[in-house]
Write a structure and sequence with these properties.
The protein is α/β, with parallel strands linked by helices. The chain has helices at residues 28-34, 55-66, 96-109, 129-136, 148-160, 167-174, 181-198, 204-218; strands at residues 44-48, 69-72, 85-88, 113-117, 139-142. 43% of the residues lie in helices and 10% in strands. The protein has a five-stranded parallel beta sheet with strand order 2-3-4-1-5, with helices on one face. α5 (148-160) packs across α6. It starts with 27 loop residues before the first helix and ends with a helix.
Length: 219
Amino acid sequence: MPDTRQLPLPFIHRPEFAGDFLEAASNAAALTWLARAGDWPGGRLAIWGDAGCGKTHLLHHWVGRVGGRYLCGPVLRQDPPTTALAIDDADAVPEPTVLLHILNAAAEAGLPVLLAARQAPARWRACLPDLASRLRAVTAVEIGPAEDSLLKALFARLLADRVQVPACLQDWIRLRLPRTPGALREAAARLDRASLAAGGAVTRSLAASLLEGLRQGEG
């Protein structure tokens, strides 16, 4: 008799940036500044904050709204800018002269540049004096630690994209996790894999095993 059990298939979940950004007090200042690019001093703005706070999501939203181009700092090239630019991980550009050239070229062309990193530009390591002075002049807006209400909404959205978990169980899991978006994303990914492997719904027992695995991974 053929085995008709469903086998879990490997699935790489990629973040979806098309949905609405979850607004909260922690990101309100960044959202306000992003909505008024014409007011950016020197045509430049930096948003900064811990990993997973939503910087990449905001960059994608902004370039979609203004018709700009999204770039990654670690692979940034010295191409002449022809449109508004959003540079993610801008503090990780391997060659400082490339970032300096792009900032200068964008300023000459009157094109806005949005930067994102884990620290404000004034704290980046810039070995070029000209680049350091330009970075100190960039208006920087912090995205603060996520509030409980934001974490709750984020966890619900992450799970809705992957696996069905009752709201009461979502709260039970979330309150036992570190209060960071990164921890929620990792938990959602593990719940997805665990539910596929178990071939059933997520239970409290399964969630408890997940939490124990996360704690062991931290140790």
